[in-house]
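Hi all, long-time lurker, first post. I run a small reading group and we've been trying to get comfortable going from sequence to structure in the token notation. Rather than ask abstract questions, I figured I'd post a concrete chain and ask someone more experienced to write out its structure so we can walk through it together at our next meeting. Sequence below, copied exactly:
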Amino acid sequence: MSSDPLQLAKEAGLDVLSEDFASYCDSNDSLSNLRSEFHIPLCKDITAQTPDTPNSECIYFCGNSLGLQPKRTESLLLEELAVWKQRGVQGHFRHPLGREWVAIDETVTKQMAAVVGAVPAEVAVMGSLTANLHLLLASFYTPTKERYKIIMESKAFPSDHYAIESQITWNKLSPASSLVLIEPTPGTHHLTTSQILATIDEHADSTALIMLSGLQFYTGQAFDIPLITQHAHSKGILVGWDLAHAAGNLDLKLHDWDVDFAAWCNYKYINAGPGAIASIFIHERHGQSEIPRPRLSGWWGHDKASRFRMENVFKAIPGAAGYQLSNPSVLDVVALLGSLQIFSQTSMAALRAKSQLMTTYLHHLLLTHFPGPSPPFTIITPTSPSERGAQLSLLFKEGTMQRVFERLERAGCVVDERKPDVIRVAPAPLYNTFREVWRFVGVLKMAVEELEVGR
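-- Answer (accepted) --
Happy to help. Here is the structure in token form:
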């Protein structure tokens, strides 16, 4: 299908604002069968029940915060609990389903690499996002007298900011002189690519590392990863990416883009469950140097063939797996496996194409049903589909967001809020439908109208 809903509606002879057009998109969606792979929460379970509460599936546009549960996750978890119950420690080496716990991470590495455009050896499933960032920064941020600065966005997710600042102070430097924060131009919400490149140029001789989000958590802006990475490398600067909101959302090509390192969580668009095990990427060229990068090591990153000899002479597994510290939680890994099996039924290119059409459709409906000159909210996510992912961030007029949010929830719409004034709306291509987008805008319109009448 076309990525332009207006063109698609014209070709179909339908009004783009009609429910018939939404149904037409769903009937022509080659990925629509994947919705049946997920548990969709019911309205009665996600909001306080009233006589008007519908006994139907809710509209869940919150995959940017926590993805829905794949139906196969429960059985995978129960299988591992049964092996533990019946075989105890033997599950590490003799597993009736071939998922020996001693190599449990290997059951997901190849599929995880496909999601982010990596060679399998460049990916490790391990730890949690901020802990992994610290491990990567300990390896890639090695300040010298000449190059000691880190460049990052001023509005990065707080945990990233805390990690960067603490790494700087850990190296006995001052954030005041060693941390360069890129601020949006006054009156805007985004960082332009030219602004980022200009900041790199300005601080090139004194910068050791650049750390950015692949997709900005608050505004939903997607950064130009390949161009920024290439430009930084031309200045001799390493680049790391927090892909929490990009993995499973954008069609990433980390290997081809020559990204140095990246980290992401797996509980958002990758649907591995609350607090799920995270992942890292390290480009294979960093393992080809005669002098290995410094790292904080643990036994699970040691050569598998000799790991249990307990010889206390560390020999790293080649690639990202050499950065593992401890054996991963089996239950966490199989929860991730359940979702990755669904990803394996399609491709990130196909998911991204549906997502761009779906979010562009949402964007068009919002602009049409809430026209100027004084709409109740401003969409602060970039207009261009190439500069955003699934998420649109709606900045409401002061003092109104919470009441709109509560009305949406009562009507069975799950979105999330970022105080004081933003609601983030993120239809996910794996399980959301175009008709849900159409219905959501109708519910939002009623919520805003109720608010205005209530005044």
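A couple of things your group might point at:
DSSP finds 14 helices and 13 strands in the chain.
The longest strand covers residues 207-213.
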